Amino acid sequence: MATSTLSIDLDAIQANWRALDRVSASGVQTAAVVKADAYGLGAERVAPALARAGARRFFVAAAEEGAGLRAILGPGPQIAVLSGHMPGDTGLIRDADLTPMLNSVDQATRHLETLPGHAFGVQLDSGMNRLGLEEGEWEAVAPFLLEAGPELLMSHLACADDPAHPLNAEQLETFLRMTEGTGLPRSLAATGGILLGPQYHFDLTRPGIGLYGGLPFAGAAPVVGLGLPVIQTRMVRPGEAVGYSCTWVARKPSLIATAAAGYADGVIRSLSGKATVYAGDVPCPVVGRVSMDLITVDVTHLTAMPAMLELIGPHQSIDTLADAAGTISYEILTRLAGRLTRFYHEAKA
Fold first, then answer.
1. CA dist 2 to 40, 62, 142, 261, 308, Å?
2. What H or E segment, with its residue span, contains residue 33?
3. Fewest CB within a 10 Å sphere: which of 22, 96, 197, 302?
């Protein structure tokens, strides 16, 4: 096999959903965020597993994702669209029975005019300055939007991964001010917000990265493993360079393994000279540039050369790898490319 192998533990995803459901306050519904093809892990397998675990509401980024998810899940579960009701979305929203989270006055007008009586929610900007109606806009349109009967009022925390950040409390106060007295279901917390405590939970929580084994949910079961097949090894003499641009030069006789993974597989180029892979329990440094299809690894210290090297697994989490790359686990997951050979593990399909 000349492609890297990506193992995805559906049991672990289900366990993480159940754990975050337990952390959510009593009486709070726990949804599941499966945007970007379930964070790159494959919504076709991940979403049904989450539904079997108990998830009944799902969040995606765009109507096109929602239509694809509806084909996977069938009728019944609610599928909410975070980008709202964009131009050209009307047919998809209607035919796939999607629930757009309206972000602007224009979206509200479009939805109520083209799909009167169709379910919707409203996203409010409580301080992130990204999506949603600002406080003044909400005050202006709330009377007619509330009369139309939104299913959910929601907002999103900007700094939930930092419990001490003052913006968390400021956003909570703003969200309360914008929504109290409406009598409608409310949602503020994604994974980080769930961990901030019950005052952030309201009626619905929306875990995302925590489902897939990432921080800030430190108690998450690991979900992903990535093994890289070794194609070739060679001895490199002192003074010889390895890889593009000669960024690594051997100081002593070195055994270099070339493994089948590169930035076309989601092993991002910023890991060049910074990443570590594992041969069993033994760490091995990546040397030279990460290229499109290959990485090179110094295995001089190994007593035997394994057929596979571990990039993500028991010895290195998605967050540890992200730290080495100077990024976050979300980017590591969502960059994992279709060329990888995928294996899904689930005790009961």
1. 21, 34, 57, 9, 11
2. strand 32-33
3. 22
184 and 247 share one domain = no
Q: How far apart (Å, rounded) are the C-alpha atoms in residues 266 and 272?
A: 13
- Do 157 and 235 lie in a common domain? no
Cα 314 to Cα 323: distance, rounded to the nearest angstrom? 16
* Per-residue confidence band for 299, with pLDDT thresholds at 50, 70 and 90: very high
The residue among 211, 243, 267 that closes a domain is 211
Q: Is the C-alpha dihedral spanning 270, 271, 273, 274 positive or negative?
A: positive
Q: Are 191 and 217 in contact (CB under 8 A)?
A: yes
163-188 pLDDT tens trace: 999 999 999 999 999 999 999 999 99
Distances (CA, A) of 37 to 41, 51, 281, 345: 6, 15, 32, 18
> What DSSP string describes 161-224?
TSTT-HHHHHHHHHHHHHHTTS---EE--SHHHHHH-GGGTTTEE---GGGGT-TT-TTPPP-E
pLDDT confidence of 1, banded at 50, 70, 90? Answer: low
Residue 2 in any domain: the answer is: no
In a domain, 216, yes or no: no
Please choose, from the candidates 311, 298, 296, the residue with its C-alpha nearest in 3D space to the C-alpha of residue 228. 311
Considering the domain architecture, whether residues 101 and 199 belong to the same structural domain is answered as yes
d(CA 56, CA 159): 27
Q: Which residues contact 168 (CB under 8 A, 6 or more apart)?
A: 157, 159, 160, 162, 196, 200
Upstream peptide bond of 185 is cis (omega within 30 degrees of 0):
no
Enter the DSSP assignment of 265: G
Taking phi over 0 as left and psi of -120 to 50 as alpha, with beta for the rest, 26 belongs to beta
Say whether pLDDT at 349 is over 70.
no
| For range 316-336, the mean pLDDT | 96
Number of domains the chain is built from = 2
3-state secondary structure of 8: strand
pTM over 0.90, yes/no: yes
In this prediction, residue 56 carries a pLDDT of: 98
